[in-house]
């Protein structure tokens, strides 16, 4: 679904019955890339473009045979950080939009997921369980200078780099439920933002870096909420039946 930033005018962006996950806007706002599961059970990437009659496959020829779980465009719109399964593990790749210049950025037996680009497109934050529990890491766009960013919490995931470059929002599990914290890209400042007895997950930034949208189960089912980055003005945006998760804020 797509809705206004106020929560008004919710409307379906896709209409097939397959499971769809991880929507992410193109930098120019002209489309959404997402993962959709095939009848065989493997995920692939699709692009729903504004004005197109139907969504089309994306990166179908890149890494043949590999299930593709998520794709996130860099700020230029020319490359994607791609999450795909190879060699019985899940890794992050950098791929041109046309499916060329495939570069594997992470390797080994660990599971690496959840990439998010820095606003200048030179770095990628991601999630890795290479130390046993999922933690947030940062690397250059070519896979170099990889370093661990988070050391607190037993399960850290869903990083989201702010458009102004100052913060990386992420969800952390400290006492059974997930809360949303902010950490600076250098790892020097790490502060809680959304803390509640129920879980708060899936942070995504407004284009001006002043607000965060996220999913929360504080009313039982998952709904989408928005809050100022100073922790004030919490507002629930969704009232639809079912679970509402994985928000992605448009670029404008």
UniProtKB/TrEMBL annotation:
Q: Name one Pfam family in it.
A: PD40
Assigned protein family: Belongs to the TolB family.
What is the name of this protein? Tol-Pal system beta propeller repeat protein TolB
What is the phylogenetic placement of the source species in the record?
A: unclassified sequences, metagenomes, ecological metagenomes
């Amino acid at each position: 679904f797509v809705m206004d930033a106020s929560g008004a005018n919710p409307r379906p962006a896709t209409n097939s019955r397959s499971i769809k996950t991880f929507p992410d806007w193109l930098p120019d706002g002209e489309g959404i890339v997402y993962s959709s599961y095939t009848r065989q059970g493997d995920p692939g990437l699709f692009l729903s473009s504004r004005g197109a009659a139907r969504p089309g496959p994306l990166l179908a020829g890149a890494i043949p045979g590999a299930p593709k779980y998520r794709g996130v465009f860099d700020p230029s719109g020319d490359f994607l950080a791609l999450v795909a399964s190879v060699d019985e593990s899940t890794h992050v790749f950098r791929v041109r939009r046309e499916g060329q210049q495939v570069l594997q950025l992470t390797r080994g037996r660990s599971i690496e997921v959840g990439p998010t680009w820095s606003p200048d497109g030179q770095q990628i934050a991601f999630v890795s369980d290479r130390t046993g529990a999922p933690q947030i890491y940062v690397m250059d766009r070519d896979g170099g200078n990889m370093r661990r960013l988070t050391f607190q919490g037993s399960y850290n995931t869903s990083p989201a780099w702010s458009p102004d470059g100052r913060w990386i929002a992420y969800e952390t599990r400290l006492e059974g439920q997930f809360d949303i914290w902010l950490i600076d890209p250098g790892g020097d400042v790490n502060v809680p933002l959304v803390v509640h007895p129920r879980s708060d997950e899936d942070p995504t930034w407004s284009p001006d870096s002043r607000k965060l949208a996220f999913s929360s189960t504080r009313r039982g089912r998952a709904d989408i909420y928005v809050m100022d980055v100073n922790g004030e003005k919490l507002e629930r945006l969704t009232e639809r039946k079912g679970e509402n998760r994985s928000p992605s804020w448009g670029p404008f």
